[in-house]
């Protein structure tokens, strides 16, 4: 009776279903790895259908996305950095996005993603990069 809201991390649909059976409180947020190589759309859709905010961490795939040729090409096309492309893509997919950095200039750069939009065909290019790879099993990637 003390808990009014909860958040969970890395819960799959099966975990959320089990939680529903064991608890009366639905989580308000599920924090899960989300980047162009790891886009768990079925889980995103499940969370949305149950009013659970899907929050994506590690949007740069621990730096792996920053050197991908297609992301670099899109960054040049939009006059942005690869990091900004990944963050903007995540936001355009309706994901609450939490990039991590300790450098002030990168934090500032990561915030400059609200004054442009990635065209739908370019969003689809990024969506198509999903290969299911996880890069964040290192707990330092999670904020």
TrEMBL record:
This is PGFS reductase. One of its GO terms (molecular function) is oxidoreductase activity. PROSITE patterns: ALDOKETO_REDUCTASE_3. Belongs to the aldo/keto reductase family. Residues 1-127 form the NADP-dependent oxidoreductase domain. It comes from the Eukaryota. Pfam families: Aldo_ket_red. The lineage of its organism: Eukaryota, Metazoa, Chordata, Craniata, Vertebrata.
